[in-house]
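Regression test case RT-17, inverse folding.

Input:
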């Protein structure tokens, strides 16, 4: 089992910045990828950014160039620096962990952290 905890959400004005943090803990796993998804009420969860242990990174189209994902592999920690925030970035942000164990892979999610961007 992997425990995922996010922090850093809040309220910010358009054009401002926020930094999200996520830490994964547990025993016997390797975090192949860690990243962030977001979800607005009534909409599907969408990719924000993800980064593998080997450094491969993928961003959602709407955040490319404004958000930056970084990882501390040894600590199973991932960060999301969000700059030039827009009201449409308002959502609940979830940390995602793709973990490998002896014999397979499993996905884990954090509880979510609210990001609200005011116009």
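Golden output:
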């Amino acid at each position: 089992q992997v425990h995922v905890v996010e922090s850093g959400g809040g309220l910010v004005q358009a054009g401002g910045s926020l930094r999200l943090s996520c830490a994964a803990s547990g025993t016997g796993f390797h975090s192949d990828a860690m990243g962030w998804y977001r979800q607005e009420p009534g909409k599907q969860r969408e990719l924000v950014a993800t980064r593998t242990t080997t450094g491969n990174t993928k961003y959602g189209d709407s955040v490319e160039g404004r958000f930056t994902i970084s990882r501390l592999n040894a600590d199973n920690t991932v960060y999301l620096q969000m700059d030039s925030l827009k009201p449409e970035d308002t959502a609940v942000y979830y940390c995602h962990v793709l973990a490998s164990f002896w014999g397979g892979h499993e996905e884990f999610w954090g509880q979510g952290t609210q990001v609200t961007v005011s116009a």
